[in-house]
Amino acid sequence: MGWRGILGFDYGIVQAPLGADISGPELVAAVANSGAIGLLRAPDWESPEYLRELIRKTRTLTDKPFGIGVVLAFPHEENLNVILDEKVALLQVYWGVFPKELVLQAHAAGVKVVHQVS
């Protein structure tokens, strides 16, 4: 099936979510437009409107799927609600436990979940 069939991307290249100052909408859109996986970084604090703004700005720059990285060790519940509401293609979670119930909630919203294990 490959990346295209599972996640909607042409290449299995992942651009790391290094922070909004580095992995902002312009970079994420450029990566997505090239067929790879571009990831925004959710803020390390609850900032749902700021995150919604990042998602919507990215959508003005690409019609390709992209994702968001969330550090679970930081507050993230309100940000997660925005991610699911905006139905981004991919949610990468790391540095913490992401309960199965939230995975199911993401899947119900059409969001694929990748849990990074280190």
TrEMBL record:
KW Oxidoreductase (keyword) present: yes
Keyword annotations from UniProtKB, A to Z: Flavoprotein, FMN, Oxidoreductase
SUPFAM superfamilies: Inosine monophosphate dehydrogenase (IMPDH)
MF terms in GO: nitronate monooxygenase activity
InterPro entries in the cross-refs: Aldolase_TIM, NMO
CDD domains: NPD_like
Keyword Oxidoreductase carried by entry: yes
Protein name stated in the entry: 2-nitropropane dioxygenase
Natural source organism: Kingdonia uniflora
